[in-house]
Amino acid sequence: MKASLLVIDSFGIGALPDAGNYGDEGSNTALHICENVPEIHLPNLTRLGLGNCSEILGNPLPGIPSQATPLASWGVMKEQSPGKDTTTGHWELAGIILDKPFPTFPIIAPSFPEEIIQPFRQTFRVGVLGNESASGVDIIARLGEEHVQTGNPIVYTSADSVLQVAAHEEVIPLTQLYEMCMVLRRLCDPFQVGRVIARPFLGEPGNFERTANRKDFSLPLPHNTILDVMGEHGVKTIAVGKIGDIFNEKGIDESYHDKGNTACLERTVNLLRDRAGESFFMFVNYVDTDMFYGHRRDVSGYYEALVEIDQYLGQMIDYMNTGDLLMVTADHGCDPTFEGTDHTREYVPILAYRKGWPGGNIGIRDSFADAAQSVAACFGTSPLPNGASFFL
What we know:
The chain is an alpha/beta fold. The protein has helices at residues 29-36, 43-48, 50-56, 86-93, 114-124, 136-150, 174-188, 226-232, 243-246, 261-274, 288-294, 299-318, 370-379, and strands at 2-8, 73-77, 129-133, 154-157, 162-168, 195-204, 207-210, 215-218, 236-240, 254-256, 280-286, 325-329, 348-354, 361-365.
């Protein structure tokens, strides 16, 4: 059999009970997109049961009605781990529940401690620009010209546990930028920073644009995930998009670092079509909803990205065999109508379609880790320490 876990990055479906602790009370990515787009047309997400997911929380989605007999089992999942970032969300989906949040850095410069910045400067004989919390697009626009003139990289953070390094590809080549980030990764490990991210860009002053050559360097995982469990039981594991970076390639047999939703969607469909007779677990991230539209508070762009995902979902369903599992979920919220530019602490939808099996209401789940446990149950492997399967 084949199991595919598809993450629509940041597609939350309503504020968690503790959202107020994060300043996110009232956020709802899915609902607010539907309320602000004149006409919603997401037929595959609708027939899978997305509207049913939202109604569990008492928030019907305009344009996405609940179905009498959805194709998938439907519900929502709480995040047990503290935080609302990519690493935390994906790790919990894979079976890791954190007991404390990854550390974040001060908003006002200097954000990063000298124990990180000084050895970095000494190693590469450079200064640093920024060293503050900022939107990536804004800080490149503001400091990009100085970076081009001096050769000093732009270093910045956000509300997440990240250290990001922006550099013009014609000033600091990609190989050198990645080397810088690997050094910073080692320097950040004692501080338990979630991710170091390379953020290359191109263009001229006033017209800088980030390229698709972003690369994430994640903190070492604290213990095994569903990817490792699959491997231990002889099931091939495939990662698409930034999954390989998030999990440091651990437990992954094939890793496709496709850039952007279209490439990742095409990869997903091709793998399901071309390997119809194989057994594997595929973990996929569709990043554009978050990176290009959630953070930039672009409601219409976010919706158009959902339309593209929905169109490809139809093809994925067509290429499934009886017994195959397709799960659609998210890793956190990033409500494009909410204040600020950061992620939002939200429930995530879970649509679990097993071809040939009836769908059902799986309710409000206590952890994202239920996704990993459900994959294990379908393959009949040993259970993970965290999570409860959707399937009895």
